[in-house]
Amino acid sequence: MNPNLDKLQAYPFERLAKLFAGVTPNPALRPISLSIGEPKHPTPEVIRNALCSHIDGLAVYPGTKGLPVLRQTISQWINRRFDAHIDPETQVVPILGSREALFSFAQTVLGECEKGTRVAFPNPFYQIYEGAAFLGGAEPVFVNIDADTGLADFSALSDEVLDQVALLYVCSPNNPTGAVMSLDNWQTLFDLADKHDFVIASDECYSEIYFDESDPPVGGLEAASRLGRSDYNNLVVFSSLSKRSNAPGLRSGYVAGDADLISKFLLYRTYHGSAMSVTVQHASVAAWSDEVHVQQNRELYRQKFQAFQSILKDTLPLTMPEAGFYFWAKVPGSDTQFALDLYQQQNVTVLPGSYLGRECNGHNPGEGHVRLALVASVEDCNEAAHRIKALLSAGH
Ligand SMILES: Cc1ncc(COP(=O)(O)O)c(C=O)c1O
Q1: What per-residue confidence (pLDDT) applies to 246?
Q2: What value does the mean pLDDT take over residues 282-293?
Q3: Beta carbons of 352 and 335 less than 8 angstroms apart
Q4: Which of 12, 76, 366, 386 could potentially form a cystine with 124 if both were Cys, beta carbons 3.0 to 4.6 Å apart?
């Protein structure tokens, strides 16, 4: 058996199930989950209709590179959204949601690579980065997220460590903090990648969930273009329709950027067998071509975040994230105890921040925080805020 499998940690939701084992939640209250980041708004008609009208696509094997119309549509969307030019022929490939691709991309970069065997990413983090590092035969480098900025400062790593890093994941908008990398942050990262020759994998699946319509998050491709790196050297960006279009079950996204990396990844994927169904490709064309449902989606999140924050303002002051659909809340006492009490007394499920982080430099930066995913309906989110208030007012 592959010995690296033993290095994988229990997924946060497994740990949560263990924490709650044997505990009976308050039976007088209906369950509300704020723990899993699964969008719950309805999947738009435009996607459902396109899926149905292209059902014949199920009768053919799809190609791994994807249909030209899909690659063109995604390139045009990237151009509209990020003012970045992507060649649909060489710089973009469809992926089955960003999760599988964030994972398998590491297999493409690592292997017997001559560069070091380390993979760096922010801590706390989306758990796939760590699994990808281990199963790629590499060691993770955790970089603690700064409590003030909500981002990891990779320039704090020593030159020696950076020289060993072959792959570095960034997540902007960040899960769980909601912080967004600025153009300056990107400049610093590009300089480090040039100096130490590593590949940047930018996880941007929350880029379309933001609150200020006039100030959408900067993306990696956008930053590269604005900074005169229009070949996207050593940069690939991952995104998907899961959060943008409330279609987590569609399993549809894209990877775009450095043509050399994309061509190697496409080769890998051909063997890996991760081609997108033609039916799903057509539904994805419809989704990327429509912005109305995305704006409506943002409006719903805006309402939920404002109401949630206002209900809790005197009991648990919450800072608005710049983007994404999580509050990263500092709670009194231990995060696991808070999650347990909230579940037991109020039947609301939240994710302890420590489950998303690892101990590094003497502490786990997720500790003392919980992640609140405002994915449920407006009504359920408001109700959850009132229940958190009730828990804290009762002296948790
Ligand atoms: C930071 C981050 N990246 C990637 C993903 C994967 O999403 P998907 O595979 O649906 O694109 C998630 C899902 O929750 C996430 O939180």
Answers
A1: 97
A2: 98
A3: yes
A4: 366
Q: Are 33 and 376 in contact (CB under 8 A)?
A: yes
Q: Is 37 exposed, middle or buried (0-12, 13-18, 19+ CB in 10 A)?
A: buried
**CATH number of the structural domain 3-42+293-393:** 3.90.1150.10
Closest CA to 126 of 169, 180, 190: 169
- How far does residue 28's CA lie from ligand 1's centre (Å)? 33
Q: Specify the ligand 1 atom closest to the Cα of 37.
A: 14
pLDDT higher than 90, residue 317: no
Q: What is the pLDDT of residue 122?
A: 98
Tokens of 109: 């970069």
- The yes-or-no verdict on residue 303 having pLDDT over 90 is yes
Neighbouring residues of 61: CB distance < 8 A, sequence distance ≥ 6 = 275
End-to-end CA distance of the chain: 46
124 lines ligand 1 (CB under 6 A): no
Q: Does the structure show a pLDDT above 80 at 283?
A: yes
Q: Domain 47-290: state its class.
A: alpha beta
Closest alpha carbon to 387 in 352, 338, 354: 338
The DSSP H or E segment spanning 220 is helix 220-226
Instruction: Give pLDDT, residue 396.
Output: 75
Torsion sign across C-alpha atoms 41, 42, 47, 52: positive
Domain boundaries, the chain: 3-42+293-393, 47-290
Measured in Å, residue 98 CA sits from the centre of ligand 1 at: 6
For residue 174 and ligand 1, the question of a CB distance below 6 A is answered with no
CA geometry: angle 350, 211, 176, nearest 5 deg: 35
Test site for ligand 1: of 11, 74, 95, 126, most ligand atoms within 8 A of the Cβ: 126
At 116, is the pLDDT very low, low, confident or very high (cuts 50, 70, 90)? low
The 139-144 sheet, strands edge to edge: 92-95, 253-257, 235-240, 199-203, 165-171, 118-123, 139-144
